[in-house]
Write a structure and sequence with these properties.
The protein is mainly α. It has four helices and no strands. Helix content is 64%, strand content 0%. It is globular and about 40 Å long.
């Protein structure tokens, strides 16, 4: 997961703060679509394989926050 976080932080911070995706309200199955939408922005430079890895990290992070709030 650390490798995925590093990829996420490197790619996603090009366009916005990391708080934006980390606090987004996305359903468990919606992360890949969310990342794909972001990757279409000019200069994002995120490959499809990277999109999948970032989405897996965000889904993991989201699950961890839900479990902590219980």
């Amino acid at each position: 997961m650390q490798r995925r976080y590093e990829l996420f932080s490197r790619k996603c911070s090009r366009c916005h703060s990391l708080d934006r995706p980390l606090h987004a309200h996305v359903g468990a199955n919606g992360w890949l679509e969310y990342v794909q939408r972001m990757s279409r922005h000019p200069g994002a430079g995120i490959t499809f394989a990277e999109q999948r890895e970032i989405a897996l990290f965000l889904a993991y992070y989201s699950r961890q926050n839900v479990e902590k709030s219980r």
